[in-house]
Amino acid sequence: MNAIDSLRDMITRNMRQSGIMVAFVAIVAFFAILNPNFLSPTNLTNIVLQYSYILILAIGMLMIIVAGHIDLSVGSVVALTGAVSAVLVIRNGMPWWVGVLAAIAVGLLVGAWQGFWVAYVGIPGFIVTLAGMLLFRGLTYLVLNNASLSPFGGNYYDVANGFLNGLLGGYGVDVFTLVIFGIAVVGYGVSQWRTRRGKIAYQQTVESLPLFVVKLVIVAAVVMWFGYQLASSRGLPLVLIILAALVIIYGLVTQRSVFGRHVYAVGGNRHAAELSGVKVKKVYFWIFVNMGFLASVAGVVYSSRMNGAQPSAGNMFELDAIAACFIGGASTTGGVGRVGGAMIGGLIMAVMSNGMQLMGVPQSMQQVVKGLVLLLAVAFDIWNKRRASVVR
Amino acid sequence: MTPGRTPLLALRQISKNFGAVEALVGVDLDVHAHEVVALVGDNGAGKSTLAKVIAGVLQPDSGLIEMDGAPVTLPSASAANRLGVASVFQDLALCENLDVTANVFLGREMYNRAGLLQEGQMETETRALLRDLTVRVPSIRTPLRHLSGGQRQAVAIARTVIGNPRIVVLDEPTAALSVAHTAEVLTHIERLRGMGLGVILISHNLNDVRAVADRVEVLRHGRNNGSFRGDASHEEILAAITGAGSPSL
């Protein structure tokens, strides 16, 4: 297969995924041209800090959507977990890690509660989490006595606002950040190379070598450039490390683990999965527990970023997370979608919000634009599917 | 049919009621290794109910199930699976969003100590399996939604063989297929017999049945209504199905 054929094959085969990549690059380019500050080190750092919690939520939401459900309660869970943590740390003066652990414990409990109703009582996730949205918002008000709590300060504040900087020195450009990004790039290259070797060993088709190398070089260049921008600003944000770890772990869980395979199977054809011996109820239960966990992580990050807990925190986060999944290629009927796609979908939302803010677009207009983008992304998905079925 | 040999699977006096409806009344059935037994009958004769009893999906109200001469119970599909019974139901139990390999191994994935899927190994086995059954698909990584009806049926049959079963139950495998794809599926069934399995084939189509079956068992109103050799005439079998000239009802 020569390079051109290979390229065309890759594009048509992954139309949905590559379409979203192209859209992402186009949106970034659009804002970069309109506003020179958009790609500045400070602003890139800001984007990471501002939207990390949406991306964390989108990981769990993706798994729920793939399994054929939806979770409307995550915004309330973000608020509740942050509130519990704030009460312990701020009001009762406990150490920061007690707050973090308590928040995660609450998240797991909430997840188990919702998972129980969905999996073992058989109520659709939409209803259970709609109830949860009210329930956990109400509990947040109770926990906080209708008042905000702040500030966390100290180590807790650093979770979302801290940077690793100057560990290895450097003049204006943090060497440590660059080293970490270098390791990430090399790791990515090695794993891609090994996957390719494996595919060849099992006689699968792979893209031609020049195309493969070009792809690697482009990815490496973009990642290193991004790392350099961060390094010349404030260094490596702690949140980015948390996010990267979650993306890698959940990438493995969804694509390479038995559990992940079963999530896709249940979303594709619940009946078939059941007959094949997949424990459907267990899958439903655990995806909601997992969502509770990730919502609590997002709750910690968000309360840390806000340096306090408010009763109305996390309002509408669920919609941002759901939109990220659908823009990133998840199917409304379940069974289709990837963590990577949801991350790009979330980044598209993030870049648009941030870009429009820099340009001074009013909030009302931002909402209009984001709504249209969501609609167009799903319309493209449906059109693409129809086209594929005509080809067959 | 083959005296002196213990049947692989023997059903004795199986009865099953759904409320007041008698779906099965005292049904007997023997299946041996290297044998294709066709189960025929009119709509509502109890074929699919019997298949579901064998697959462990339904439990009989009374009667005895023996494997290799020893009584067994089949309380669930996975229990039947463990005892070596694999089934393909009328409504294809496949996930259209997953690829061929993932479907073949669904519910029995191979994984390493870290809990990660062993894709390479599963692919190798899938490829060998499809070769044994002479199934042709574009690629073992093709999602099922891109395959034709016949190819999907072939994948469904292939996935039954993964757990090293001894009995395969096929419920109307050719119902929705074109002539060419039907011929392919019949070839797959002969391959299963060649591998030494006992095959229970449920079908409406007497032509298909007579093409591959070693023995034809007729059900009528939930009761046994005749047993024929695979080369029995169309008319003989049809008479038993419709009850024409039959003393039983």
Automatic annotation (TrEMBL), chain A:
Superkingdom of origin: Bacteria
Principal subcellular localization: membrane
Keywords: Cell inner membrane, Cell membrane, Membrane, Sugar transport, Transmembrane, Transmembrane helix, Transport
GO MF entries: transmembrane transporter activity
Cytoplasm found in the keyword field: no
InterPro entries associated with the record: ABC_transp_permease (IPR001851)
This protein's name: Xylose transport system permease protein XylH
Automatic annotation (TrEMBL), chain B:
ABC transporter domain location: 9-246
Keyword annotations of the record: ATP-binding, Nucleotide-binding
Superkingdom as given in the UniProt entry: Bacteria
GO molecular function, one term: ATP hydrolysis activity
Organism in which the protein naturally occurs: Xylanimonas oleitrophica
Name this polypeptide is given: Sugar ABC transporter ATP-binding protein
PROSITE patterns referenced in this protein's UniProt entry, alphabetically: ABC_TRANSPORTER_1 (PS00211), ABC_TRANSPORTER_2 (PS50893)
UniProt cross-references to SUPFAM superfamilies, sorted A to Z: P-loop containing nucleoside triphosphate hydrolases
Entry keyword Electron transport: no
InterPro entries: AAA+_ATPase (IPR003593), ABC_carbohydrate_import_ATPase (IPR050107), ABC_transporter-like_ATP-bd (IPR003439), ABC_transporter-like_CS (IPR017871), P-loop_NTPase (IPR027417)
A Pfam family that the UniProt record links to this protein: ABC_tran
